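USER: For my understanding, would you kindly supply a protein sequence with its structure tokens?

ASSISTANT:
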Amino acid sequence: MRVPARPPLDSLKRSLDRRRAETGRKVRDGFIRETFMLPRQAARDKAREWFDRWPRQAYWTEIESWCERPDDVIEFTIRRLPTAD
């Protein structure tokens, strides 16, 4: 009795590699993150907008990281939990 040959796995490997490359940098902790690079006042306004729209108590909204760039530009990442619709 002859055993059938294994199917080629090249296409499966390619699709897995492509999927891993697309999602490799995403953190899977349930938070929604956005990164901004804005002038200082605009960064303050954007952060205030987020905290007004998604209050810290309900959505765990917080500035995850920030740094000062040249020309008074602030780069920051803000995160929150998704809405529970």
